[in-house]
Design goal:
Keywords: Cytoplasm, Glycosyltransferase, Queuosine biosynthesis, S-adenosyl-L-methionine, Transferase. This protein is of the alpha/beta class. 22% of the residues lie in helices and 28% in strands. It starts with 26 loop residues before the first strand and ends with a strand.
């Protein structure tokens, strides 16, 4: 499909720079067979049915943004995918000043050697020393805010908490599964009281999620791979919900993409561990999920293509126009939508 079909105009003031407080007070646009309705995230227990299940991503964001020196040249690195115990693939700022074999000093006793430059301009970075890389990043790295926020303000101490979900457990993401940022312990208690179950899986979100689509046709776009896992016990729970007539509602496009990667043509979700580069566009037949809670996405992005595949492009263009006109806040720290096809 033509990428320009997924374009829309978003005023800059609609981009949220901080999350709602409290988190579950954020606005939520409900889009379903009966049309659209304005709600709040805190209304979620009354919008779902007993027997439904919400599926969260328990990945934890690491401080994956690094600033260092290669000689006299300043080098920026954003880690986006682990390739080994001490090796990470990274997007590089000022990459023209970096060559394979160069050592970057990130300060605080942290350094890495660049190698294996890829066609997309990224390098592999091999971190020196014996300390776990996670400890090195805690010393030298900072929270990797999305570019549309980082361009307007610097990351600060608040982001270390604001940019983690309450489910964050498995370290490895360089971007938050932001739909789950809206959840609080009080909201999850209310969901349980309403008979709505929850489950978690792990997909380590990569910085590739923010890369713009630079081609004119979706067929020509290459997705970056991300690592995910659904264990056998979780797969059994997900399948049991649907077998009993409940709905699986993915919280975030990351949960959705992993479930769809694990689901067979028969709709059965199987244990999964490995990389996925699934790219969902209109025409895709969903196999594993029955709905999606997600934030509002960038124009011409793979994520807006995904929600258009779920709900229909015309319906999502109308929903986004309503959200913009009604003052909804967009992107990672913004408001939510509940999509029930």
């Amino acid at each position: 499909m033509r990428v320009d079909l997924f374009d829309f105009v978003l005023p800059a003031e609609r981009i949220a720079l901080r999350p709602a407080e409290p988190r579950d007070s954020a606005h939520m646009l409900v889009v379903g067979a009966q049309g659209m309705a304005d709600a709040r995230v805190s209304d979620l227990p009354g919008l779902l049915r007993a027997g439904d299940m919400l599926v969260f991503n328990d990945t934890r964001v690491i401080p994956a943004q690094l600033e260092g020196m290669r000689g006299e040249a300043r080098i920026g690195a954003t880690l986006h995918k682990r390739e080994g115990p001490r090796r990470w693939r990274a997007f590089i700022r000022n990459a023209k000043r970096l060559r394979e074999g160069d050592v970057i000093d990130f300060g605080a006793g942290v350094s890495a050697t660049a190698s294996a430059r890829a066609a997309d301009g990224s390098f592999a970075l091999d971190f020196a020393g014996d300390e776990p890389v996670e400890l090195l990043l805690e010393r030298a790295g900072r929270m990797p805010l999305p570019p549309y926020i980082a361009a307007r303000r610097a990351a600060d101490a608040r982001d270390a908490e604001d940019y983690q979900t309450m489910f964050a457990r498995e370290a490895g993401a360089v971007a938050a599964p932001t739909a789950a940022l809206h959840f609080t312990p009080g909201l999850t208690d209310a969901l349980a009281t309403a008979g709505i179950a929850t489950a978690t899986l792990t997909l380590h979100v990569g910085a590739g999620t923010f890369l713009p689509v630079k081609v004119d046709d979706t067929d020509d776009h290459a997705m970056h791979a991300e690592w995910g896992r659904i264990d056998a016990a979780t797969a059994d729970r997900l399948n049991a919900v649907r077998a009993a007539g409940g709905r699986l509602i993915a919280v975030g496009t990351t949960s959705l993409r992993l479930i769809e990667s694990a689901a067979g043509e028969d709709g059965i979700i199987r244990p999964f561990e490995g990389d996925t580069a699934i790219f969902i566009t209109p025409g895709y037949r969903f196999r594993g999920i029955d709905g999606l809670m997600t934030n509002f996405h960038l124009p011409r992005s793979t994520l807006f293509m995904l929600v258009s595949a779920l709900m229909g492009l015309d319906r999502m263009q109308a929903a986004y126009a309503h959200a913009i006109g009604s003052g909804y806040r967009f992107y990672s720290y913004g408001d939510a939508s509940l999509l029930l096809p």
